[in-house]
Amino acid sequence: MERQELKRELDATLEARRELGAEYESALVESFVEKVDTQVRRRLAEERLGAARGGGPAPVPAPGTAPGSGTFGERFGFAIVTLVLAVPLSAIGAAQARLSGLVVVWAGIVAVNLIHARSPRGRAKGVDAA
């Protein structure tokens, strides 16, 4: 459900950008990022609440995956989503600040993926990070 909702939001944001023009790009992107952030925070809160209510420990990562990086599918999906979002963000960054804007956008994409790869999601309770 969340993916469909985010896809509709992205489509609406892109359509609004086409209709309103480049001068509203920044506001549209900020609005979309805020919606994504809200959904991520809601999902994390639901997971934490489920674990606190005795929903059991978080799943243990499969053998061969890095600690805290989740399953391969989760990592791959996250990378695909960030690359899909990179297309309009790259265009906006390059249009607004040329090469420096593009570099900032891609530095952010790399940073988000690195943080996600090193996040404690998926660790069993009571296991410390190395």
Describe this structure in words.
The chain has helices spanning 2-20, 25-52, 72-118. 72% of the residues lie in helices and 0% in strands. The longest helix is centred in the last third of the chain and has 47 residues, at 72-118. It contains three helices and no strands. Helix 1 runs antiparallel to helix 2. The chain is globular. The protein has 130 residues and is mainly alpha-helical.
Order of SSEs: HHH
**Total strand segments:** 0
> What Rg, in angstroms, do the CA atoms define?
17 Å
Average residue pLDDT = 78
Structural class estimated from helices and strands: mainly alpha
Shape: globular
Report the helical percentage. Answer: over 70%
Strand content is: under 5%
Q: Please tally the helical runs, counting DSSP H or I stretches of 4 or more residues.
A: 3
What is the terminal-to-terminal distance? 35 Å
Low-pLDDT stretches are: 64-69, 122-130
Largest sheet report: none
